[in-house]
Amino acid sequence: MIETISTKEWQSLPEHAQQEVKDFFFFIKAKYAHQSQVEQQDNEAMLLSEEALAEDWLNPEEDKAWAAYQ
Q1: What's the Cα-to-Cα distance from 33 to each of 2, 7, 15, 24, 40, rounded to whole Å?
Q2: What is the pLDDT of residues 29-62, one digit of tens each?
Q3: What is the model's pTM?
Q4: Which domain does 33 fall in, by range?
Q5: How many structural domains comprise the chain?
């Protein structure tokens, strides 16, 4: 459960502490936005490479070549 912070509690903090909390919030927000972008790029790369590799690997010649290792 996420606890809310009342305006009174927030205003009781010194201004430099409020700034520190805001800075940390934006740091965490940017960190997770970056992670999401990296995950999306990884997924796109995986899908593109899967399609390219399928052309080379999904054929009868490859099946025959690898039959002894199955």
Answers
A1: 20, 27, 27, 14, 11
A2: 888 887 777 777 777 878 878 777 777 777 888 8
A3: 0.48
A4: 15-69
A5: 1
Tokens of residue 16, six digits: 């430099």
DSSP 3-state assignment of 51? Answer: helix
Two structure tokens written together for 49:
């490479």
**Residue 9 within a domain:** no
* Length of the chain in terms of residues written: 70
Q: Are the CB atoms for 24 and 16 separated by under 8 Å? A: no
Which of 41, 5, 7 has its CA nearest to residue 25?
Answer: 5
Taking the alpha carbons of 27, 29, 34, 35 in that order, is the dihedral positive or negative? positive
State the DSSP H helix or E strand holding residue 52, giving kind and residue range, or none if neither. helix 15-57
